[in-house]
Amino acid sequence: MTAFVVIDHVDQVFPLPNGQSYIALKNINLEIRKGEFVSLLGHSGCGKSTLLNIIAGLAQPAAGGVLLEGRQVTKPGPDRMVVFQNYSLLPWLTVRQNIALAVDEVMKHLPAQERRDIVEQHIDMVKLRQAADKTPGKLSGGMKQRVSIARALAIRPKLLLLDEPFGALDALTRSGLQDQLIQIAQEHHLTCIMVTHDVDEALLLSDRIVMLTNGPESYIGQIIDVPFERPRERMAVVNHPNYYALRSEIVYFLNQQKRAKQRKVKQAAIARNGLEKINLEIGFVPLTDCAPLVVAREMGFFQKHGLEEVTLSREPSWKAIAEGVTSKRLDAAQMVAGMPLALTLGMGGKAPTPVVTGVVLSRNGNAISLSKRLYDEGVRNLADLKGALAAAPDRVHTMATVHPASMHNLILRYWLASADIDPDHDMHLTVIPPPQMVATLKAGNIDGFCAGEPWNTHAIKENIGFVIAHDLDLWIGHPEKVLGVREDWANQYPQTHLALVKALLEACEYCDDRRNRPQIAELLAKPEYVGAELEYIRAGFLDPYDRGDGKPPEQLLRFNQFHIDITNCPNRAEGLWILTQLARWGITPFPRNWIEILDRVRRMDVYGEAARQLDFPDLEPNREPFALFDGTVFDPDDPIGYLNSLRIKREIRIEEIDIDHPAIVVAA
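Structure for ABC transporter substrate-binding protein, as requested:
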């Protein structure tokens, strides 16, 4: 069904007296169907009314826009009527005259008698016949609000906007008006958007509840589908078996936001002006996609942004990277995408170490390689691999990945499970540092591995392996490497952190200009960086990619992706998918407070500020369902339902993770 209202990537920014600006709303993207009732819910200051004013045309967004039936909203109009909390009635006019004022203005083309009939009809609709000739001063608060609703509906708007319409009323009056609004909305198939603080009101009235996070940079944190059938009655809603579960989920979201607000106040006091630290030690693992770090150092981007001396520390493994950052030996590091989340949650039974990422450094770049022995046995695809496993039940087949929280591990497991191969029961998975993959495969200690380049190409060139699948077969554009720093480091050195992200953003842009790739490949081949043969590094990075399966090499323009198509955004929906996979395989619990965890780890505020200062776009991709190669849909509004739907998984632990007080773990 075509959307009736489209809120398209709306930002709202307000100037501050000190010359700076306040970003109230960030990347609000929402579609509303005709006849739908949507509530906007969140704490005070989250931008609910600001968004409603933009939809009404009372304010213009700083970016993005609103479409109503395909036409852009640029100013107020009678097709959108707003019901305010303060009634907005003219005190010297009667009920009838207040309603008639709107009808006569908007419907001048109708005969006078027809306009009078419309006024009387709406007086009866809100049950105010006996008060029709009274002025507002002689009406109760509930009656005034009914006049306001009647006036709005009398001009037959396409969209009814309600800004906390019942917030100032007593409980009894409020419930009566809510019931009346339900009846009117159902009878007239109204499309409504309502701002509210009241959880029960939202559940009673809404088809969907859109929950906004705290400002600044408020965004849609979660959308709740309300499953109660219409026509809707209050007691039927309250007695519905899902009512209290939904209510609990909404209250939980609001409590997360309350905690986040308290924490941000503490952090703001720590920040200081200027670059607090200019000499940095940054860790990396020798892989082709460490290119942004190498480029930032060699091309002077670090120095450009005030980081005078940056040492790149070549680490032997991702385990060493994690140790270096958590022990404070390293200021920052290139990390596999899931590592900041896993460390923050306390992977492997260790105490949580909050780690944040303000930029994705690369996407794609991995492949699943199998031994040439399996190729010689006829294995060409996943179905063949399953057959080979079934044909040798007494043999333990071993696959290697680079780290439990890496996309290599998570996607390899996903790929196997899609064919009903249990990666822990039907195979043996082990962790090996990337530079050791080829030697271990050559020794016959593993049957294959999932790793980044140049190690797959190295195995092919030595004629000991072939690529059965690569990232562009499995999940095009998945996050691969990120910048990771400890949260306390980011709080202590906020301007240094921002400068580091800016330098790496510019380096990423440089890496995705293919005219620069020959030069970058030669830099990567140096022994202090990747230290591999130049032809191995160029495969996929610059030259056509050879799978080692006898077919002609393919030109894969996005095999290594560093900047295009919002590569660098630490997308929270992708982070949420990673959290589900970490929980799926028992690597970490799934955090019941996932919105709070994602906000702390995947720092959209840092990324956005860095991007804006560089005049780069700072949009976050649409928060909408997506699927990998097998077509299984991941809905970011229902991660637990997604987890429960997966056939092969370990026992799922769902816990509230209090990373500020790690001894406190609350099972959900």
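The CA atoms of residues 230 and 480 lie 45 Å apart.
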